[in-house]
Amino acid sequence: MPHDFSIVEQVLAEPEEDAACYITQTLHQDGRLSDDEYKELINSLRPVANAVKKLYVKLHPRVESTDYEKVFKGLDNVEITRDFPHCKCYFTHYSSMAYLSALISGKTIIYELPGQPTHDVFKTVATEIVHDVPELVEALKRQMNLPEKPFEERKKIISKYATYTGVSPYEVLYKTVYNKK
């Protein structure tokens, strides 16, 4: 049970926005992309903002907002945030938050980068896997217009690798450790 599940009820309590959300990762910070590759990736995402009514850029805790602010400067429909928004569709590369987005909306696009293969654990919750920005834009257009799957079906989709019970993951961990004493 990912610790991200502790915010499911809070996110679902907010109205769903007609928006997409990019869940960022530490691609450059962890040395998976060079500085140039990282900046090229971020710059390539600007057309995504033009394809949706609203785009959230959900920053990883160790990702600085500066580069994203430069790329999306002047676009009124982009919001850079550290909070997890309630959107129609999400995309990421291979973030553990793919499970949270799959549970929240059931529409999670995996944007697989060259030389950065996506592990099967994340592919299982993907509604589509894309390999470049034009594919991403088309996938977003398709996914944004699909009806939402019922919550129980979304729980089933993630169930191969994660379980959502509505109980705080911290409470489950505490009880598990406490009962093993």
Strand-helix topology:
Elements: H1 8-13, E1 17-23, H2 35-44, H3 46-51, E2 55-58, H4 66-71, E3 78-81, E4 87-92, H5 97-104, E5 108-111, H6 120-123, E6 128-130, H7 133-144, H8 151-158, H9 169-179
Parallel strand pairs: 1-2, 1-4, 2-3, 4-5, 5-6
Helix pairs in contact: 5-8
Structure description:
The chain has 181 residues and is of the alpha/beta class. The protein has one domain: Glycogen Phosphorylase B (Rossmann fold, 3-Layer(aba) Sandwich), CATH 3.40.50.2000. The protein is built from nine helices and six strands, in the order H-E-H-H-E-H-E-E-H-E-H-E-H-H-H. A six-stranded parallel sheet has the order 3-2-1-4-5-6. Helix 5 links the parallel strand 4 and strand 5. Helix 5 runs antiparallel to helix 8. The two termini are 21 Å apart. The relative contact order is 0.18. The mean pLDDT is 91.
Q: List unreliable stretches of 5+ residues.
A: none
How many structural domains are formed by the residues?
Answer: 1
Mind summarizing the main beta sheet?
A: 6 strands, parallel
The CATH superfamily bears the name Glycogen Phosphorylase B
| Widest sheet: strand ordering | 3-2-1-4-5-6
Give the structural class.
alpha/beta
Silhouette: globular
Number of helices, counting only DSSP H or I runs of 4 residues or more: 9
Under CATH, the topology can be stated as Rossmann fold
Rounded radius of gyration (Å): 16 Å
* Beta-strand content bin: 15-25%
CATH class membership? Alpha Beta
- Total beta strands: 6
Fraction of helical residues? 25-40%
List keywords for this structure.
Rossmann fold; 15% strand; 6 strands; 181 residues; alpha/beta; 9 helices; 39% helix; 6-stranded parallel sheet
